[in-house]
Amino acid sequence: GEEHYNCISALHKSMRGSDENASLYWLARMLEGGEDPLYVARRLVRFASEDIGLADPLALTQAVAAYQGCHFIGMPECEVILAQCVVYFARAPKSIEVYKAYSNVKECLRTHTGPLPPVPLHLRNAPTRLMKNLGYGKGYKYNPMYKEPVEQDYLPEELKGTDFFKERKT
């Protein structure tokens, strides 16, 4: 019933709050209560990106490894795999930078009026002569050929100056 959602919420919030003891408690309560370990492992994969993100990019690797380990051996042996992952996440630094930036991109797309802006010509693929004649790919600077990053616009003209990692340009 509702306790399924209450317990996963408590686990998430305990890890988010860096409380390793409470995190282990809520994990054990779920597993000992019969929760599917793969459900918990899937939620840990999401947590790795949503709450830890770029503060510790290895968190996602830990979560996927925990999911695979649970899938391979099942309960009760996989409980220690999940416990290790939960403690790792509780101790990990947290960052929601990517989560917030992606939310800003989605908001930009949802609130856009009219057709979405076209892909700039220099960013378009030009596999045919006709496309090349129409200007597809013209002026594109292939970064690996340069020692330093090149100055080049990658967003459509009407989004120039938008930084989704900061406040969205209005």
Automatic annotation (TrEMBL):
Domain of life: Eukaryota
GO molecular function: ATP binding; DNA binding; enzyme activator activity; single-stranded DNA helicase activity
Family annotation (Gene3D superfamilies): 1.20.272.10, DNA polymerase III clamp loader subunits, C-terminal domain (1.10.3710.10)
Transmembrane segments: none
Keywords, in A-Z order: ATP-binding, Nucleotide-binding
Pfam families: MgsA_C
GO cellular component: nucleus
Record-level GO BP terms: DNA synthesis involved in DNA repair; DNA-templated DNA replication
Keyword flag ATP-binding: yes
Entry annotated with the keyword Nucleotide-binding: yes
Limits of the MgsA AAA+ ATPase C-terminal domain: 17-168
PANTHER family membership: ATPASE WRNIP1 (PTHR13779:SF7), WERNER HELICASE-INTERACTING PROTEIN 1 FAMILY MEMBER (PTHR13779)
Protein name: WRIP1 ATPase
Organism: Trogon melanurus (Black-tailed trogon)
Organism lineage: Eukaryota, Metazoa, Chordata, Craniata, Vertebrata
